[in-house]
Structures are given as C-alpha cells and as structure tokens.
Hints:
With 690 residues, this protein is α+β, with helices and mostly antiparallel strands. It folds into 4 domains: 15-51 and 66-145, Immunoglobulin-like; 157-245, Macroglobulin (MG2) domain (Immunoglobulin-like, Sandwich), CATH 2.60.40; 254-411, no CATH class; 489-666, Rossmann fold (3-Layer(aba) Sandwich). Strand 30 (489-494), helix 7 and strand 31 (518-522) form a beta-alpha-beta unit. The longest helix is centred in the middle third of the chain and has 29 residues, at 411-439.
Amino acid sequence: MLCLPGSIEPASGPVLVPTRLQTELVLRCPQETDCALCVRVVVHLAVHGDWEEPEEKSDWELQEPRNASLLAQVVLSFQAYPTTRCALLEVQVPAALVLPGQSVGSAVFDCFEAGLGAEVRIWSYTQPRYQKELNVTQQLPDCRGLEVRDSIQSCWALPWLNVSADGDNVRLVLDVSEEQDFGLLLYWDQVQGPLKSWKQKNLTGPQTITLNHTDLVPCLCIQVWPLEPDSVRTSFCPFREDPRAHWNLWHIASLRLLSSGRWQLDAPCSLRAKMALCWQAPDQGPCQPLVPPMLQENVTVNKPHEFPLLRSHPNLCVQVSSWEKVQLQECLWADSLGPFKDDMLLVEMRTGPNNTSVCALEASGCTALPSNASTRAAHLGEQLLHDFRTQQCVQLWNDDDLGALWACPMDKYIHKRWVLVWLVCLLLVAALFFLLLLKKDRVKGEHFPVPVSQGQPQRVTLGSSGWRGGRSRLTLTGSAFPTAAPRARKALLLHSADGAGYERLVGALASALSKLPLRVAVDLWSRRELSAHGALAWFHGQRHRTLQEDGVVVLLFSPAAAAQCQQWLQHQTVEPGPHDALASWLSCVLPDFLQGRVDGRYVGVYFDGLLHPDAVPAPFRAAPLFSLPSQLPGFLDVLQGSGAPRPGRLADRAEQVAQALRAALDSCTSHSGAPGCGEAWDPGPYPALE
C-alpha cells in the first residue's frame, strides 16, 4: 500500500492503538544455502476509550451486550534507503476481550526483507490515526557481523569496504574480486529530509578511492552493491564519531540572512545546536549573549528561522552553540546597516506585574542602573535612565512577560565629554600663557610657546620691553616638536541602485573599507540626509568635500550601471526609475572625466564574475580600474595613497577585505532570483589575489 498517513482524528468509543514496537532479525531460508535477512515486527495493541451505552437498548443488545468485534487497521512503514515499503494489517478483537486502557495482545508481521548493513526505520500507526505514530530505528549487521554468512548467497560476492588513513587523506579500499562490476554511492544521511546523493559511480574491482580529509562529515555514508538485478546493498557510515568530520562540519556550516528578518543555518548534516542573539560592542570584545531575558532556541539546519525582533541593529549578532561551546558567530546586519555603533544596550527585566529593573550590558556583565560601580554605564547611569524613560532609546525586542531590549545612542555623551576636555585644555593654556606674561619682565631670555612647523626654521621677533638690548630675533627649529598623526583619507563610494542583493555587496565593501584607516561615505548609510537634501545636492556636496580633502571617489560599475552610463553618453539622458541615484552622481562626475581631471581623484571598480572590463564605458577607463576581490592589493594601494602601509601589512588588509567580499559575492551570485545581482558572466573560479 502507499504510505500516506492522514491527520489525527478524535476517537468516539473504544479504539485499538499501537503502544509498543519490537523488532527481531531472522533468516528466511527457502534452501539451506539460500537465506535472506529480514526484520520481524511485533506491534503491541491496547484499547483507548469506553463503550457508549445507548439510552434505549434493543432486544438484541439486551441479550448480547457488546457482542461485536473491535476492528482496527494498523499500518507498518518500513524505510531502508533508497526504498520505502508499507503493509496494512487488519486486526479484529472480540468484544469480550476489550478492556479500556489494557493491552489486548500483539500482531506479528513476518517479515520485511532488508539489505545487509542498512539502517532501517519502522513506523506504526492506525488508520484512521488516533495518536502519533510509534517509530524505531535499527542498524542491521553486514556480512562481516553474521555468523551464518555462508548461508547468504549475496555475501559470497558482496564488495567489502575498509577505511584507512593516508596522511591528510582517507582511503576507501574496496575488496572486490577481479573483473566484478559493482556500484558505489557516497551520500549524506540526513535525519531531517530525504537522503542527499553526493557521488555515484559504476566500477570494476578491486578499487581504492581517495577522499580529501576536508570532505569528511559525520553523515557521510558509503553504499556498495553488485551490478546485478535485485542485488542487496551494503551501507557504511564510518565517520559518525570521527573528530575531523565534526570539525569539518562546523567549518563548512554557515549562517545566512534571508528576507523579512529570517535566517538559516546551512550545513550538509543535521546538527544538535542552539541559537542566541548577542551584542557586539565596537571595541571588538567578546559578543555578550542576550540571556536573560531572551532565551536560546533549538536550531534545525537548512530551515528558515524567524528573528523575534522589533528592529534590526548592526551590533546584534547570532551565536550558534553546541555542547555549551560557541561554534558559529555572524553579525548578519553589519553589511546592510553599516559598521558597529557606539550604543549602550539596556536590558529591561519584568520581575512582577508592576515591577521592572534595568541594567546596561557591558563586558563585565549587566550593570544595574543606577549603580556605584566604576564602569562606563554606571558613570552615565542617570542620563541613560532618563533617555530610557523619555523613550529616546530604540526598542529592539519586547516580551510582555520577560522584558525588553533597548539601544541607547552614546554619541551625545562622547561629544559632551570632549567639550569639557577642550574647555579644561583651553583654561590650562590660558593660565600658562598668563603666567608667562607675568614672568617675561623678570627672566631674561624667556621662551614663549609658539607654533612651529616640522623641519622648518621659524623666526620670532620679541619686543624691546622683554629685552634690554632693544629688538632681538630668536630662531627656532621645529624638528624637535612632534607633529599630529595624519588624518585618514576619505573615500566616497558611488553605485547604482540595483536591488537588495547588490546593495548588500556594496555594504560589505563599505564596511570592510571602514575598518581600515579610511573614512568611508556611501548613500546606504546616509539615507535620511539623502532624503532631506535630495540626491543631486547630497552627491554634489559629498564629491566636493571628498576632493577638497584630497580624498578619492570610487565608481562601482554593475551591469546595470554600465548600461545606464553608456545610455547617458549616447543620448545625454537616463530614463527615470531605480537608477535615479546613478543619474544624480553621474552628472557630478562626468565633467571631470570629459575634461581630463581624473588622476588621483577617481578609481573604477567592478566585481569578479558580475561584469567584463570591456563593458565599462571608454571615458571612465581613464581612471584606474580594478576587479574585486582579485585585484584588492592594487586597489587598496591606490585608495590609501601616501598613507598606504608596508607591503606585508597591505597584504593582510587585502585578505581581510577579500574574505568579506567573497562571502557577499557568493550570496549574490548563488541566488539567481535575488534582485540586484544581474546577469553574471562566468570567468571560472575566483582568481588569486594579484
């Protein structure tokens, strides 16, 4: 029969339901040397519910009460890769034996034929279903584990598999007789969902197959069988307890942000793990878990999960833990919302109907507010509580029973502190200057503090009131005075609005560059200002300030941007639509390219696999053009100019930026339906960094 279990139905009156499953391995031997292994299944049944006594009994019911048999249909489902079989047992119990809540006996199915070495799963339920199905999983022995293997013909020619280590590789040694044809299947045995095939080959024995140790995962299984009709398949899963396989599994697992605030853990095998949100401070310290009040949740791989958030924040990250150890951590919103903010996270915990407590999450723990501790949050406790009570903080999460999470900006407190510091410094300078004025008539040759340029002799003329010999000249050399540290160069990123996928890619580049000594400006991080002043005014102002400060303007070319620029050059117009931002900044930068004012001011960029360099319009090729991430070292060298670090340090920074870009670029190009990725040309695998 087909295995089509229906939904659970309420039972009226007594019904038979399975209460326990038992299995037993037996041999079926039509002949003494021709046996097959099979699984005998015993289903124990019991009665649930009571008889309904009718208000008016008929003469037949008065003579023979409950003189009817209780009938049930019990379904047995037997799954062994790659097939599933089902059997329907019809069970009839005399009414005299029906006692509610007690066992009435068992039914035996004899039996399901099974492959040697296979893992079988057996389910049992009634039809119609009155409760959840019973299930049992059993690992069957292979020919090496059977004492009667001489009686099973399939064991005589069955391929044998041995696993041995060869340095960093693993060898699968298939002990198969000469010229025997057999099939080999490598697959991932997943608890959730169907089994996933990886590699399948038809081979001729004997064979030795080498696997890279990085291919090992706990659910990697091997199945072999002779290439004969109805041959028995033997399965092995030799890496379930291999430490390298478990390490590889967490190494290749990844967290992915989906649309509408959902996320997913991608992995080839099932994982026993829990998820929790954590708060990452800008100082790059440990990410602080948000528990309590937010509790951990169990994770199912390859299945979307919902974030219980009211609002996203770049400092919120996801931690996936297994066996009390953090295995994965990703700040999924950093690429779309920009770098970490200097915000303080307040945890509001509800301890009663009208009783709440507030603490600030810091590296040392959650500091209660107000507090006398010597921490940053404690020093600003009153101001933070005022912001919290006047709703100047942003609510990120809320639960009516547990509490809420609030993000409070700290920029204004930092500005206030700097204002006080500057005031104190000015007062000290003024007091020092006043003291020097008082002493200059008393001390001959007194030196005044004057601004000195590095390495240049400065001439200072002192009045005759300070010197008895009339006007004198004093020459100072500024080489002994330290100079201020050079300011980080500014970079303005200009791109086309090609949709969410491409914006995440641009955001990843901007976030990675902002971690270098660069001041990055991009419209994704200034949408409120862009909306207030208009796109044209914002781009014109940013370009003017960037070039005035000896910065650099980076033009990001996507397939859509290259086409729009070509249209502008040919027709001097751009159709309105999602590329209005491109039209705004194109009108600002195009005159510089047409008049030859490009050197040291502009850089062109396109992403590996998304655009061919010949697609960039010719006028824009006057600026240096780089493909990312393959040409990152040269791009960063031009971008940082005279402030570029040593070659070794530059290579390290290029690798950091490349890692962030590869992850975003893979996410963009691997989802063909994602908006904004465009029609990607295929250049092959990622080239090495030049």
